[in-house]
Structures are given as structure tokens and as C-alpha cells.
Amino acid sequence: MGILHKPFQQRTVWQLAPLMALVLLLSGCGINNIPTYDEKVTSAWSQVENQYQRRADLIPNLVETVKGFAAQEQETLTAVIEARSKATSIQVDESILNNPQKLQQFQQAQGELSSALSRLMAVSERYPDLKSNQNFLALQSQLEGTENRIAVARRDFIQAVERYNTELRTFPGKIWHSILYSDLEPRANFEATTENADEAPAVEF
Predict the structure, then answer these.
(1) Which of 19, 62, 68, 200 has its CA 20 to 30 A from that of 182?
(2) Is 15 inside any structural domain?
(3) Domain harbouring 141, CATH code
């Protein structure tokens, strides 16, 4: 039995060898690149969401702190509150990545919030007691760090989308896309609305 079994095993190995070689060949030809890059885009987008949400979470305390020292700056305070409300009202699930118009609306709303926050921070220059308040200083530091993290997360997302979209348009990714991944579409990306928008800002408070 053992003698008969051994040739059978050898034949099975030789029959499987071409299949194993084909699997190795395909994996080396980038057959998995498209879904891998797609997952990286999704992961990078999650970081963008996280950092924008972190900023949104800081704003109510920041507004209340400024209000305690500069209640007369009502127009500026209201602008920040309204900009935050608009930015957080846009649903930012994964479907936004396939909707350039919605992504642009999200980007515009976040830009308006950034502008309103800049005006709020400028207000502090007129109130020495506010500038020296420990709560304000802590919020200011957290906001500055968050702005930098937003810039990094946006940069990583932009690079992930570029890599994914390039894979769909170039060889051999274009072939794998047409054969195996035709359901995956090019992703929308952020558009730079200001000069050097992909760089972490130098926040001056």
C-alpha cells in the first residue's frame, strides 16, 4: 500500500505545481494591489474624519471660554458656532469617497470653519486676560496640534487616493481592474483651495 501511495502523492504534487506557480506569478503581478490600495484609502479617510471630529469637539469649550472674557464679540462667536454646525451636519461615511460633489461640499464647510476659527483666535489679541487664561491656553494648544494632525491626515489621504487611482489607470492594474475589480471606481480627492494646502499650517495665536 505504501509503495502505491507514494507515486500517487508525487503525481498530486506535480499536478498542483502549475497552480501554485500561477498563484505566485499572479501575486507578483499586482493582482492584489487594487483592493489593498482601496483599503488604504478608506483607512486614510477615517483618520481625516477623526481629526476633523476632534477639532469639532474642542470648539464648544473654546467658544465658552472666549465668551467668558469677550462676550461682546458675539458676531465672531456666532460665526464659529454656525460654521461648526454646518461642517458637522454633512454626513461623512465612506460613500462620500465616490461622490466628488459631496466631498467638495465637505471640504468647503471645513474651510469655512477654519476661517471662522482664525477670526476667533484673532479676537484674543484684544483681551490680555483671555490670552493668559489657563483654560484658553490649553484649548489653544490642543487646537494647534489638531490643525497639524488634520494637515497630515489630509496629505496621507491625498497620497492614498492618488496611488489607488493611478493603479486603476496604469498597467497591469488596468487589466486587473477590467477583469476582477470593475465594481471599484476611481476615488474623489481633496482639492487644494489655498496655497500649500497639503502642508501643516503654522498656526499663530
Answers:
(1) 19
(2) no
(3) 1.20.1440.20
Does residue 9 belong to any structural domain of this protein?
no
What whole-number distance in Å separates Cα of residue 67 and Cα of residue 180? 57
The per-residue pLDDT for 30 is 83
- How is residue 194 written as a grid cell? 489655498
Q: 137 CB contacts (<8 Å, ≥6 apart)?
A: 131
Degrees (nearest 5) of the Cα angle 49, 51, 55?
Answer: 115
In 3D space, the residue among 129, 163, 142 whose CA is nearest the CA of residue 55 turns out to be 142
195 in any annotated domain? no
pLDDT tens digits along 48-87: 999 999 999 999 999 999 999 999 999 999 999 999 999 9
User: What pTM was estimated for this model as a whole?
Assistant: 0.79
Query: Residue 140 belongs to what domain range?
Result: 31-179
Q: Quick one: pLDDT at residue 10? A: 56
Task: Classify residue 168 by burial, with Cβ atoms within 10 Å: 0-12, 13-18, 19+.
Answer: buried
Lowest pLDDT segment from 19-23, 142-146, 189-193: 19-23
Per-residue pLDDT at 148 exceeds 90:
yes
**163 in a domain, yes or no?**
yes
Q: What's the domain count of the chain? A: 1
Distance CA 114, CA 118 (A): 6
Query: Alpha helix (H) ranges present in 70-204?
Result: 74-89, 100-123, 128-131, 134-169, 173-179
- pLDDT tens by residue, 97-109: 888 999 999 999 9
